[in-house]
Amino acid sequence: MSAAPGDASCESLTGLPSLDALARERLGRLMQEMYEPVLDEPLDPRLAELMQELQQARDQQS
Questions:
Q1: Burial level of 50, CB count in 10 A (0-12/13-18/19+)?
Q2: CB–CB of 9/17 below 8 Å?
Q3: Mean pLDDT within 8-32
Q4: CA–CA gap between residue 1 and residue 45 (Å, rounded)
Q5: 11 with 1: CB under 8 angstroms?
Q6: For the ranges 11-20, 21-30, 32-41, 47-56, which has the lowest average pLDDT?
Q7: Which of the four, 24, 28, 37, 62, has the lowest number of CB atoms within 10 Å?
Q8: 5-31 in b/e burial notation, b at 16+ Cβ within 10 A?
Q9: d(CA 7, CA 2)
Q10: How far is CA 5 from the centre of its chain?
Q11: CA end-to-end span of the chain, whole Å?
Q12: What residues contact 50, with CB distance under 8 A and at least 6 apart?
């Protein structure tokens, strides 16, 4: 099955679905617009504490 010229999806050489460069760029922009507000939200204090503990455990292993 081959995609028509200009279609966003097509099959790669492996036979798996893939996106052309234009579709990847558009998808990336849309995802960035969607998730950007989430990055501005404050991190839950308990989650921040757990992440700090994880980092400390990693530092001790090194």
A1: exposed
A2: yes
A3: 84
A4: 50
A5: yes
A6: 11-20
A7: 62
A8: eeeeeeeeeeeeeeeeeeeeeeeeeee
A9: 10
A10: 27
A11: 50
A12: none
Residue 1 has pLDDT above 90, yes or no: no
Number of residues written out for the chain: 62
pTM of the model: 0.47
Q: Tell the residue number behind the tokens 């400390």, with chain if given.
A: 56
Token readout for 32 is: 């960035």
Alpha carbons 42 and 33: distance in angstroms, whole number:
18
pLDDT at 14: 80
Tokens of 23: 């579709």
Token pair 């503990």 in the structure block, residue: 53
